[in-house]
Amino acid sequence: MVETLHLQYFLGALVSLIVITNPLSKLPLFVSLTQGMSEERRRQQALWAGIYSATIMLVSLLGGNMLLAFFGISYGAMRIAGGLVVAMIGYQMLFGGNTPNNAPIVRRDKDDYAFFPIAMPGIAGPGTIAVVIGFSTEIAELKDYVDLAVALGWTAAAIIVTASASWAVMRYSDLLTRRLGPSGTLVLGKLMGFILICIGVQFVGSGIRTFMAGPRSIGRNAPNALLIPSSRSWRDCGACRRRFRAAAPCGRQEAVAVQHEEPERDGRSFPEDE
């Protein structure tokens, strides 16, 4: 189980974040804003931009669920809204520009652009934050605390790797600009846009499934997570009560949901549970 979580949350988060941030698309912004700065100053700007962006994403990962709870937003609504935002950004990248988090045009009248607009919204913009909170809602549904801690740790590792990739691109911006050229950057941006649309559709599908499961579902890993019918209480059926006690010997009703099935009566009598 733990090994599966390693692969699922680390690689899943890493691919999604690399695509949504698209570090190579930050080359024009970084080069234009740091033009005329010394080499040492440019290195500092790249380093602090990476630190700021990692901090923003980590705060979104750890505090996203609390923010949703404060405003009363369900996980399904967040995934659908975030998926639509991500898909729209991917559409813009595919058929328009190649920057996933469009930073506003900023006048070059200061010498510190690490936080704004490079880190936010350049790297950790609305789309990136939506992706991170989307992952945090999936992690919050894990029932085992060990699995939850492992998933959080590997998702945080993916965030750090993503921020490090953005830092590396900005650190060696001059070299990459000469090697890729405008055409290479444009083609890569179109490819990232298509992948981003796929990720957004996946988020929307996950949100729809969460809505369809309903608020009384007991979790995605519960083997008998079925809704309790309203027509007849399961407590009135002896077979259902026996199943409940076998599945939840601790007596906690919320530990399991039991599906009540009306037996077909063909004239025979059914003994009630004692």
Outline the fold blueprint.
Layout: H1 2-21, H2 27-33, H3 39-71, H4 75-95, H5 114-123, H6 126-140, H7 145-171, H8 173-213, H9 238-247
Helix pairs in contact: 1-6, 1-7, 2-8, 3-5, 3-6, 3-7, 4-6, 4-8, 6-7
Brief account:
The protein is mainly α.
Helical content class? 55-70%
Q: Mean pLDDT across all residues, rounded?
A: 76
Task: Count all strands and give the number.
Answer: 0
Radius of gyration: 25 Å
Q: Structural class, judged by helices and strands? A: mainly alpha
Largest sheet properties: none
Shape: globular
Elements, N to C (H/E): HHHHHHHHH
How many structural units, i.e. domains? 2
Low-confidence stretches: 103-108, 216-234, 247-266, 268-274
Strand content: under 5%
- Rounded to the nearest angstrom, the distance between the terminal CA atoms is 40 Å
Number of helices: 9
